Amino acid sequence: MEPRQWMTTIVLTDDLVVEILSRLPLKSFCRFKCVSTSWLAFSSDLHYRQKLPRTPVGLLYQKREHGTAIHLAGLPSSDRDIDSTLSFMQCYERPLELKHCSNGLLLCYHGGMPSKGISDAIVCNPATQEWMSLPDTEPGPAVCYASYKLCFDPLWSQYFYVFKFESSPSGGFDTEVTVFFSEYSTWSNCLWETSDIFFGDSLFVNGVLYVEHLWRHYLLALDAPDTCTQQLNHRTIQLPGFPYGPERFYCFDGRLWQSSGVLCYAQQELDGCMIRIWSLEGYDRWVVKHRLNMNNVFGRDIMLRTNNEGLWYFDYEILAFDLERELVILADTIADNKIISYSISTGKVCQILNIPSFVNLYRSLLYVPYYGKFPACVLQAAQDKC
């Protein structure tokens, strides 16, 4: 048999094909799904989808000034072909404020008062330029604070959730949680109340929403419910490291992320010279994965300073991290708010962005593009609104 004829008879196993495809950029793979029905099937099979690339391309941020656009600070060698300004949403005349991001989907609010018949909460996908507005919840008692948490994981479901945390001033500080289901474009009637204030950093991993307490050192874990559920399954998890707000400390710098479907947490040690990164093993056991020296990164020995009130604080912040790409994103707060990426494996430091002090960088919002389409029922709700 001729060598060329022999090569044409080789049949690669599915596992080997997926291993090859997983080395492609996500955008390239999504384009190549049209090559064959088998390649298309890989993208919808949960077992194989977990092996396909899901890497961040940048950090989303927005200036504090009213009316400014959302921006994407690209990481080294990342895809820049993303419309983070959301110009495709032309039926909204007022600017949008970035609030949350989950696996390629963005949650935004309107600046100012909402237009008649249009909700002030919107979920969109900059990679595919699709979006939908969330219906308003039913009027209820006076609310002193509300926080929305967007939950989307394409490896877990094609639909997304939005958890709404509302705190009312009556009888103390009670928090009520309701859930929006994109599959049915409706808010659930499942209510859950707590006296704790869970408005901190959050992450959705494998069907579980993890939310940090506003000032205490633990997480709330809420299982994604179905529409028939009246009670939300929940538990609390103690975070590793030191608790927020030790005496004379003014540090709130812990960050959540996930690696290969496992929840991770990063925090400075007490002197700020080292960063530890843990992964959650099982339900409540944290294991140290990395201990990183920051003296070499910033070129100085002292990382702890005091403000005018005599409170200690770190002179840099952990904005985000990605263990699969082995990157940590840091803000040097004493060097003109310089944003840098640090490679865990090579020690290389790259400057991403210089921002003036008036810029509000939405921390921990690493942007991972999602090129899948919204289900038809989700888009119909958006068309009815615009």
UniProtKB/TrEMBL annotation:
Domain F-box positions: 12-52
SMART domains per the UniProt record, alphabetical: FBOX (SM00256)
InterPro entries hit by this protein: At3g26010-like, F-box-like_dom_sf, F-box_dom
Pfam families xref list: F-box
Stored SUPFAM superfamilies: F-box domain
Lineage: superkingdom: Eukaryota
Protein name stated in the entry: F-box domain-containing protein
Organism: Triticum urartu (Red wild einkorn)
Gene assigned in the entry: LOC125506207
